[in-house]
Amino acid sequence: MAVKIRLARGGAKKKPFYQVVV
Fold first, then answer.
1. Are 18 and 8 within 8 A, CB to CB?
2. What's 22's DSSP letter?
3. % helix / strand / coil in the chain, to the nearest 5?
């Protein structure tokens, strides 16, 4: 679930985004 959002946000490139999701 979080992975889908992370990919939608641009993947690991968006650290602030993926950290919040995780």
1. no
2. -
3. 80, 0, 20
